[in-house]
Structure prediction request, 131 residues.
Amino acid sequence: MAAAGWQQVSSFPSDHALLFFALATGIFYASRRIGWFSLVYVSICICLPRLYLGEHYVTDIVAGAALGVAAVWAANRPALRRPLTSWALRWMDAKPSQFYCFAFLVTYQIAELFDPVIKIIEFIVYRRLRA
Prediction:
């Protein structure tokens, strides 16, 4: 997206803070020692430069971090985790090649912050508006 296009996109909440704090929180649930390191790393190496460069306000980062941590915390509750994961685990056992192909595509989109999907949707909407 061109720089002019980003001027109309809201930076609240920070999608980088949300994604990386969610990942760090997931790591924290697996290993507290590495999790604390991950949280510090995300704060210093990912979020702080975005503040310094003026890409986000502090509230953008704090809101993104809070949403990321809250999402992982909620997904880690057993009452919510079982319904969210039972279908995926059954799919993985029944058709592993299909499951892992889909999982790769989903994790790729997460790593790209869904930018390719957004571009495809913008292209489709733009063509409809022009037609």
User: Anything to note?
Assistant: The first helix runs from residue 3 to 6. The chain has seven helices and no strands. The CA atoms of residues 90 and 131 lie 43 Å apart. The chain has two domains: 9-76, 85-131.
